[in-house]
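Protocol step 4 of 6.
Sequence for NAD(P)H-dependent FMN reductase (Pseudovibrio denitrificans) entered exactly as in the expression construct, tag removed. Do not edit the line below.
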Amino acid sequence: MKPKILVFSGSTRKGSYNKMLAALVAKHLTIANADVTTISLADYPLPIYDGDLEDETGIPENAFKLRKLIETHHGIFIASPEYNSSITPLLKNTLDWISRIQLPEEEPLQLFHTSVYAVGGASPGAHGSLRGLMHLRTIMEVSLGCLVLPEMISINFAGKSFDENGDLTKDHQIKRLHKLIERFVSEASHVKLQDN
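Step 5 output, structure tokens:
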């Protein structure tokens, strides 16, 4: 089966290293015979989550659109920057809103229990977004119940780690990327999506 994989970055900043990482992962997934959809969270703006706002106006339409994308893909890859040893407010807010959607026939957070997830991050510093990735894993695994692959890619000193074509320059990072892609495509190929 040719798996459908959704790819996006937790940053929408111009020149973002994580947007570069998301594009690189999408390219390699396509080479590995996956059907890849790449999106920008900038195209799905959401207000800061507020319980009173949800009570007054309901869940925003863009949260439902993002939910639909998740439930129609076998795998989801998130490229996550690190902000103050955590994830971006944009990514956290996106996950918070989507997690508020529960259809009448569903168990809580059922949406997150079907697809397989993979994560990676890039930063100009020495840690390569690793602390943010660990926080993201905690949110996704412990709070949302996602299956997140142990393989992940962390790109440190990102300003020197990508060449002019957006490819990685360091052998150990290239090997990690290939290992991630191989496992991700294999696991996503075995996911059975719910009928929509």
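Step 6, annotate. The chain has a mean pLDDT of 95.
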